[in-house]
Amino acid sequence: xxxxxxxxxxxxxxxxxxxxxxxxxxxxxxxxxxxxxxxxxxxxxxxxxxxxxxxxxxxxxxxxxxxxxxxxxxxxxxxxxxxxxxxxxxxxxxxxxxxxxxxxxxxxxxxxxxxxxxxxxxxxxxxxxxxxxxxxxxxxxxxxxxxxxxxxxxxxxxxxxxxxxxxxxxxxxxxxxxxxxxxxxxxxxxxxxxxxxxxxxxxxxxxxxxxxxxxxxxxxxxxxxxxxxxxxxxxxxxxxxxxxxxxxxxxxxxxxxxxxxxxxxxxxxxxxxxxxx
Length: 277
What we know:
By secondary structure, the chain is of the alpha/beta class. Helices cover 43% and strands 17% of the residues. The chain has ten helices and eight strands. The protein has helices at residues 41-46, 70-83, 96-107, 127-146, 148-157, 165-175, 180-191, 216-228, 244-247, 249-264, and strands spanning 2-4, 10-16, 22-27, 49-54, 89-94, 112-118, 206-211, 233-237. An eight-stranded mixed β-sheet has the order 1-2-4-3-5-6-7-8, sandwiched between helices. Helix 2 crosses helix 3, helix 4 (127-146) packs antiparallel against helix 5 and helix 5 (148-157) packs antiparallel against helix 6 (165-175). It is globular, with a radius of gyration of 17 Å. It starts with a strand and ends in a 13-residue tail after the last helix.
């Protein structure tokens, strides 16, 4: 499906479940698409949620990202909620999607019924954090000169572990059709995030999840997010890394199910079948 925005751009998105149920918006990571949520979309709808899964601006079949970056994405999400007359929704974002979700939560707090962030960051303030953000931007510029096939191999190489096979294959496939200019624009947009202080005023139930396999430094960045949000739950997943919903969907979904059942009384199952596609 496609949603037309006031500025003429379009968002490609898919929905799962009954629009009368509580809304959930799934926001993918940098260079990915809505399809990266394949292990969560049907499952969440079966738990009784109405799931909206967009390609964010600059990705997939949606329009290009504009110069407003984070504000562009905020309006994109809000327009989707308005289209379905949802006063609020559970916002779930991974990596870049986590940045977008947190920015949405501080700019539109009244439209958040719960916030789940996975493998992300809320600011780039320390030397290590800045290196995380800007090294990838530099890498995109170099790989743009070398071509998509080498870029795809480089992205896949970040997932050598046996348990990360699904993510490795997904990243390779989707990197082959990467739009480097849009990736750079999106990377620049998320590098500007600085919401750690504002998150201290966040009131909705919150869950922060991070995969352990990118190292303690990345875990620490995500722990900062959890520490900033009053009452936030924090979970470190073994055998997982960014993006955890794709690398370790079984454990990610288990943790998500427990959180949703706790706050919304859903009869969430303790396990889920995952896709091998």
